[in-house]
Amino acid sequence: MKFGFVVVIALLSSAFAAHFLLQDPGYVVINFRGYIIEMSVPVLVGIVLSLMFLLWVLLKIWNAPRKLGEAASRYRSGKAGERLTRGMIEIAEGNFSRGEKMLARSASASDAPLLNYLQAARAAHLLGEDDRRDKWLKQAFEQTPEAANAVLLTQAELQLDQGQYEQALATLRKLDENAPNHSHALALLGRLYYRLEDWPQLAELLPRLAKYGRLDAHTLEKWSVRVHRELMAKAADYASLDEVWKKVPRNLRNNLALLEAWYAGLIRTEQHDVAEKDLAAELKHEWRTPLVRLYGLVRATDPVRQLKRAESWLKQHPDDAELLLAAARLCLRNELWGKARSYLDTVVSIRPTPEVYQEFGRLLNQLGDGEGAANAYRVGLSLVAGSDLPAIPHLAATGGGSKPANS
């Protein structure tokens, strides 16, 4: 329509011009360095139009190779795009080998070769071809050096999926050097440390994860709790234990798992009086059964006072099995055998466990009842094994002669 409009305008303009030119064709004289050229206006117009047409044809001829090249490039890109789409469909349908070949072949003509190579690497990974996977990743980097971080991230994800933890660690550390505090890289590094159970490294990473990492609050709290719990469990002395505890975030100081690890660490490092005092204060603030169990394992310098405190709690919690077991253990420390047996009988009736029968066996052995002790140990082992066990002859034969140290 546009071309027709131009033709109509040209015809009208020509007719209008011809009307005037036929009446008076005009006269043009050009004098240039002694040469005189004379012609009518229509001839001059014809020459100018011919020159313009010739110039247009020459420009078209000059641009023809470039235009043909662009057209060929568009065609190749279109075909490459089709192959890319088809290759990704093949991979999605589980035809990994075919998809990998299509993606690799079309990479050189693709507008986005990085995507081709990365997807080809994933296909090779799914086929278990690690060498080809690394080959495509290398070509992705060579084709698009500015996308080095994307290539490294893909490589780390595939290595983690394959269980190649050492290689993944090296890749992620290189990425951390290239792009410090990269959120996704930090999250992958945290997951790797968690899988490797490298708690000191994960502990160092936690502040950066909290600030930059793409982790939900639940995962971050889970990792933080596990890290500090493991570090407290491995603390060799009270100074190391206290240093770890001071690094626990304030919002986690009331976490039960961490409190258990803290008090268990105090007991392990022989800080019994500190543990007894702090446990008593914590239980007064909030009654928690796992902490009650630990209170029974504390060997404070004043066991009589410790037992009185436990028995005062029994007035408010008479059916708490862990408190009854703790009271029984404290009675054993105070050599109150009859009271200890009474508490243990009550615990057995409420909640028999291997731990309870172990204490029962130790008490009966202390009282000289070797056969009863052997039977208690057997019942406790049966609870662990999930089936009844035969009697233990050598313990049953000891009679009352065995006198192990007090609990």
Structural features, described:
Helix 3 packs antiparallel against helix 4 and helix 14 packs parallel to helix 16. Strands 1-2 form a two-stranded antiparallel ribbon. By secondary structure, the protein is an all-alpha fold. The C terminus is likely disordered. Helix content is 74%, strand content 2%.
Strand order of the largest sheet: 1-2
- Order of helix and strand elements from N to C terminus: HEEHHHHHHHHHHHHHHHHHHH
Mean pLDDT: 81
Give the count of helical stretches.
20
- Categorize the overall geometry: rod-shaped
| Uncertain parts | 394-407
Give the total of beta strands.
2
* Gyration radius, in Å: 44 Å
Largest sheet: 2 strands, antiparallel
Alpha-carbon distance between the termini? 105 Å
- What portion of the residues fall into strands of 2 or more residues? under 5%
- Assembly type: single chain
Q: How would you classify the helix and strand content by structural class? A: mainly alpha
Helix content, binned percent:
over 70%
Secondary structure elements and pairings:
Layout: H1 2-23, E1 28-32, E2 35-39, H2 41-92, H3 96-105, H4 113-126, H5 130-143, H6 148-161, H7 165-178, H8 183-196, H9 199-212, H10 217-233, H11 238-246, H12 256-268, H13 272-285, H14 289-297, H15 303-314, H16 321-333, H17 337-350, H18 354-366, H19 370-385, H20 393-396
Antiparallel strand pairs: 1-2
